[in-house]
Structure formats: C-alpha cells, structure tokens
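User: Fold this, then the next.

Assistant: Folding the first:
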Amino acid sequence: MSRTLVIHVGAQKCASSSLQASLKLVHQALNGRFGYCFLNPAQLRSAELAIARKKEGAFDYIDRELKRQVADQVVISHEMLGNRPALVSAIADRAIHLFSFDRVVISGYTRLQSNYHVSAFAQWYFRDRKRLLLDVKLFRELGLPWRKFTAQERSLFALALSGKDRNWCANYRRIYAGVKHLAGQVQVVSCHIPTRRLPYSLLQHFVNSTGMSLGIGDLASMDVRKNQSFHPILIHGVSSFSSGLPANRQSFFPGPHEGNRWLFRVCDRLVDKDNVMADFETLFSQDFERSLLNHLDCRTADDNQQYCDLMSVDSRYFQPSPEAVLKTPEELKGIAAQTADERDLKTIEAFNRSVENAFFNAARLEIISS
C-alpha cells in the first residue's frame, strides 16, 4: 500500500486546536493504523534556523519524528508551519526521498483577515505590552485621546493605517514554489474554516481533501469544537492597565504564549462577574470598530479573490459586507476623531477601573490559593 504524509500547516487562529484534538481522537481510535504527531514548536524554530544556516544536524528533529511514523497514513501538525514554507518544503522532500512516503499533502486553513485579527487580539495581543504601547504611541502622534478607545480598537486602527494584512494568496504561492521540484508527488489544499453562515465538518473536510481513507463510519463524533477563550473582563482589564504602564515598568502579567493555564484559572474566578461588563457596548459604540473591520475586508478583497481562485475556495467566505467601504488614511483619522468627541473620558476611566479591579481581585485570589 502507498504511504501518505499530510503536513497540516495551520494557520494560527484557524481552527488548528480543534482539528488537532480531532486527529488525536482518530489516532487513538485506530490504534496504530493512523499516525499523528503534534510537532514541537521550539524544535521547529531551531530546525528552521539551522537549515537557513546550513548547520550540521539541522534535520535531526524532523528526521527523528518522521522515522517514528510507521503507519501508511500519517499527519504531522503545527500551526506555525504556515509561515515557514522553506521548512515545509524540507519536510516534504525528506519524507519522500528518505522515509518511503509516496505522497505528501500540505493542508492549511484560513479565515477572513478582520476576523483573524480580532481572534488574535483576544488570544495574544491584549497582553503584548510592546504592541499595546506602540498603538498608544500612534494615537499620541496623531493627537487622538487614546484612553477613549479600547485596546482592541487601537489595535485595529493601527492595522488599518499600516496596510499590513495576512495575505493568504502570497502564503500559498510560497508553499507551491517550495515544493515545485516535487511536482506529481506533493499536493497543496486549503479552505476557509467553517462559519455559522457556511458551516461544514472540519474533520470530514480535512480527511476528504487530503485523500485519506480512515475506515471510520462516524467521523462526526470525533469532530471537536475546541474554542476556549479568555473572559472579557480579563482581556479588557489586562489591556487597559498594561496600556497605561511605562515601557520600563515591569508587570507580572503573562505575555503572549505564556501562562495560559494560570490565566484560564483566573477566568474561572470571573464567571459570576459578567455584570461588570454591562456598560461596555454603551461606552464603546460598535460603529467605530465595524467601520475598521469593513475597511480591512475591502482592502484584502482582491488578494482574497486570488487566493480563492488559486485554491478553489468558495469566495463567499471572504465577501465584504454590503456597507463595507475602503477609506483613506485621512478618513480613518476623521472617524477616530469624531468617535473620540462622542465619548466621555471620565465615564470610560471609571469603567476601566472597575474592570481592572475585578481582574486584580480574581488574580489575587488565584495567587494566594496556590
């Protein structure tokens, strides 16, 4: 029987955790007849650096993991691979030429860039002090009262002005270019993740699109929806407090990719305090954020259409809303200034203090309980 290696390349915030949890269940159910490996991110980063520098032993970790796989159908996965086409190409090449795989499939998922950024903020950026302070600096330089905006609004505004978007088409073109020497043996597949408006079974799609045959009748029972998220009080409290700290002031808050388990335990202590956020939407009208998201959707529309054409993806996933309008930098600044004029700073500062206090109380209880 021919052997197939599937390299799941993410991307981050594109249902990777859900798919990885599902694949782990499949691996356990098939008891050795299906191989699955969640790759070590630190080892991948070291391998990428060693490959770039042409160091001896650069492929030791990759080779060790591929050698362990003895099944005819194998999936290796990590969401950071989508940003590392050279590393993906090296894995595919060695799988075919050194580890007796007849076929390699590179599989990745995407999402609308505006949604991607909102999700990334709620996972990482709200505790990334460097990014938070850069956003505050931008508002100061433009003469905008940064305290009248949420950290997420500031983050979206900075992104809207910067012009730096996640370009899925460019990502996949780089992946294609990296494996063109393996034409006929390597396939690249991709799709937008399921949405409420356009749903589908992620696991079933992954299995079908990669051409695997698992022999499991009820895949739906293994289709995990793993979408653990931080409490809004924690997100707003941490980002609000951290934004006001000087750059040289230390903080005990975990940064991006740090302390997730501790933060989730703090969230457990906030479950009965939802009333603290009751005034959020009144103080921070969604109109400003919506205009920024619509702008981002318009700006990425052409690149997204090219991605859909390249990867045969339903373009409805990336369709901007009917009211979406692409705005000039001056128009964006004008909307921000108008929004600031409509908001009351003292009321916002009082609200922020109450949210910060709720978070600090929960964090303190978690600290003294351990």
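Now the next one, as you asked:
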Amino acid sequence: VDLYASRRKVLKGGLALAATTFFASPLALAGRGGKKGPNKTVGQDKKNGLVAFDPVKIDDVIADTKVPMVSPDYEYQVIIPWGQSLDSSITPSYDGDPGTRPTADQQANQIGIGHDGMWFFPKDDRSDNGVLAINHEFGRNTHVTGKGFPESLEDVRLSQHAHGVAVAELVKSGGKWQLVDGSPLNRRVHVNTDVEFSGPVANSELIDAARGGFRGTVNNCSNGYTPWGTYLTCEENFNGYFGATGDWDVTEARARYGFSDTGFGYGWHVFDERFDMASDVYPNEENRFGWVVEVDPMNPASPPVKRTALGRFKHEGVALTVGRGGRVVCYMGDDQRFDYIYKFVSDSNWKSMRARGMSPLDHGKLYVARFNEDGTGDWLELTIDNPALAAKFSSQEEVLVYARIAADILGATPMDRPEWTTVAPNGDVYCTLT
C-alpha cells in the first residue's frame, strides 16, 4: 500500500477507471473497442492525465436536489427503483405513494431500498444483457413503513425484506436498460432468507451451529466479485438492528462491536426475538452477522454462503484480485472510526482449489494491517498459533468471530473509517478513508 501517493497520482488512475461504465465487466470489455458516449467522447486532459469532462455547477445542484445532476458528457436512467416487482405476475410494483406501503410479502419479491454496492454479470459475454447483483443497505422506518417505530411483526418484516440483496436480469433495448420481468434469475436475498455458513466457523457453537436454521443478511454495504462469477455482498453495520427488551449481558465482544439496547432505532427486537439480546431463544444470533456473503447470480436455487475465513467485522467491501501462484487475495475495510484494514490470502491456486471441490474463500490466512512511522507496513496474521492470541482465545473460530479484538491485541493501526478498497491494474491497492 503506497502510503505517500499524491492526490494527483490517485486521481490520474482513479478517474480514468471511473470513466468506464459499471455495466461492462472486465471480462466483457476484454478485447473490445470502446464506444462513444451519448454526447461526446470522454477524453483525457493530456497535460495532467486526468479525465476531462464539463463540470457541474454547485449552484445548480443546490437549486434542484430532486434529480441527479450530472455533467452533459454523461446521461443517467432510473432502472430499478425501490418497490419495483421482480415478477409482476406474482407481486405488483409499489409506486412510491407515501400514503401506502407494500406488504411484507410483497416487499420480499420487490427491489429493496438503499441501493449501494453492485456488480453486473454479462450473459454469454454480451454487454446488453446480464444480471445485476445489488445491495440494499438500509432504509429508515419512516421511509419504508411510514412509521417512526414498528407497531407489529408485519412492520418489522416489511423493514427486514427491504434490506439485503436483489439479483435482477437486465436487458438493453432501444438504448435503454430495463428489468426482465419474471426472469427465472430474478430473486431477493433478505433478512429471512435461508443461508449457509462455510469455513472455520461453520460448525461452531459461537454461531449456535447445532440449532441450525441460518437465516439472513443485513446492512449490505459495498461488495466484490470473484473470477469464478459470483457476487460478494458485505455486512456492515449489523449491530444496529439488535436491541434488548430487558436485562442483557453486555460482554466485551458486544461492546467492541457496538451493540446497544436500542440499536439504530429500527425496533426489530421488540417484535422479533432473533434480534432481542435479552432473550435466550436465539443465542449467539448476533455472531451470525458481520460476514462476507457469496451469492451465485446465475443459480437462483443456490443459497447464499457466509465465508467465515474472511473474519467478522463491519465489512464495507472486498476487493478480490489474483496474486502470485493464482492465489486469491481479498482486501477489506472495517468501516468504523479507528478500525482496521484487512486482507485474506487463499492457501493455493483458486482454480486448483475449485477443481478439488474447495472454496478458495474457505481456506487461507487472514491478516490485519499495521503501518509504521517510516512509511513501511506489516501484515499481521490473525491466527491462534500466535501466543498473544492464544492467551486470549481458545480456538481459531474465536479469533475469526472476534476479529476486531484479535486485531486490537496484535496492535493493528487504527484508521479513519476504511471503506471501499480496489486494486489497480498495476497491482497497487487503494483504500478510501472517510
């Protein structure tokens, strides 16, 4: 990680990459010439190496906040707004009328709210047809239910089903993108969707594995994608959906991960015991969140899988690249003030591992970053084989479930809210600190 990269150096690389439409994956663009945009070709400032475009006046943005303000070099189109049905033969679309709301069952078959990280997976290497996997990070009660606080389990279910992930087939026709209504690839993944756990924590009592019934993903912020064609959705501020209706055990781990008796005010815990830390009906439910979750966009029957080898924290996103020997390397930020930057390296070549029926995301080493005053840095492995961690934890499962505490012990460098990470074509790694 280049700690001393100048702002201009970063802009030269970052803006050039940003000029590429997100609807064209690297595989889809390989060997294909670029096409001109709707108004004119977006060129580069030869003197400074920056992308050239007509600026948007801030006064215009302030004057009209109802619609996006973009440079005339670009155009935008609304494709999948909150409430659009994935299959109108089953569920109608919600038209956004503030006087009404969808039912919880309807929302489970509609586009969610709070669009965030996304990735487009072309079908048959086509650039005009494919599947968009998109995160639905959050939606306030007042927005989703029209109420400041839930009044029933139905209200809670509506809120829960507005969160998660949507997988939607899109096609471009007549220069416009549109949802393929009723596509067999369309699906929602939400807080009550059946999921699986894999990796070192899969059978652990720390997630109450013996109880089974793993369900849900929430606060899906940034994302990633794999060279084998799957989507990685990242659970960030999961703590805010838990609360307590009475006395609860404020453990070191719960405090370190930011749990409280009121959470973020969603009130799920009042009507859904899964999220009530004062209840003993669902022990360790909070440990089932805070993971990177793999979704196969081309196989709607496949359950989402939580990859526990990548550690449990407030995942902003995961930038996956292929490193030496064909190993996959994942760079991740823990998005909270004074938390850390992590990386995961698979044990061996990802193609070889998959050929042997192994997920490259289940077998490998997790590291946390320490930056030194002289501009160098070290990757510190989070392993039970380290005596400092063995003195605190009894197993590698504990190290991964309580990765934040393990990183504290190793002396990782606190950062200013590590968010999106990316790997440049030359191998440089960037992380946005907000």
